[in-house]
Amino acid sequence: MLGIELATAAFLPAAFVALLAGFLSFLSPCVLPIVPPYLAYMTGVGVNGLRAGERSAVLPALFFVLGLSTVFLVMGFAASAFGRAFLQWQDLLSKLAGVMVIVMGLHFLHVFRIPILDQEARLEAGQQGGGALGAYVLGLAFAFGWTPCIGPQLGMILSLAATGGELSRGTGLLAVYAMGLGIPFLLAAIFVNRAIGLMNRIKPHLRKIERAMGVLLVVVGVMLLTGAFSTFAFWLLETFPALASLG
């Protein structure tokens, strides 16, 4: 029973990290600048036509988010299954994952650079936009092909999923990550003109956002390395006993 309660409590901070990582992924230098052209492509009009309201981008954006969410959920299930298969080496896996996440965080902080993480590996989804099915396929292609662009953030959440030991927890973490990345995309489609104006104001600060992502990665890596997630979960259960009922 305690194991279930502990897993439930441990999911909360991990879910917060996943949501924040998804949002920072949206704001990253390799995602934010392509949002308006992607919306325009999926809608079948140019960016000017999108801003003029010639066609709504909401439905294509929704199917795009469903596409990338499909891939992330499968990844989360697979990472959790991997973690369960090697449950006896869970502590070692956590430490290895922590080291890898810290290394990726130091890359974002420009302590050193890993060349492969500076590359973009995009998959094309055809030449014509404007349809829900095409937007869904583009979402699949984005999730598969935008690594290593969002690879460090995604790798961090997959590490949390693999070290959790529960299939539902890992899938849930990737669902939360998809929400963090997908909801801003949907909001950009709903409020196109305001979103484009806001994104233009954010662009000069992309380097700061990248460094914030680096700090998050290092912190999570240290927590994985030291087992601090379990310690924090115990603290949550002691401080908020009602969390036990969620298990």
UniProtKB/TrEMBL annotation:
Signal peptide (from-to): none
Pfam families reported in the protein's UniProt record: DsbD_TM
Alphabetical UniProt keywords: Cytochrome c-type biogenesis, Membrane, Transmembrane, Transmembrane helix
Membrane topology value: Multi-pass membrane protein
Transmembrane segments: 6-35, 56-80, 92-112, 133-154, 174-192, 213-237
InterPro entries in the record: Cyt_c_assmbl_TM_dom (IPR003834), Cytochrome_c-biogenesis_DsbD (IPR051790)
Primary localization: membrane
Localization, UniProt: Membrane
Domain named Cytochrome C biogenesis protein transmembrane: residues: 16-226
Family: Belongs to the DsbD family.
Protein name stated in the entry: Cytochrome c biogenesis protein CcdA
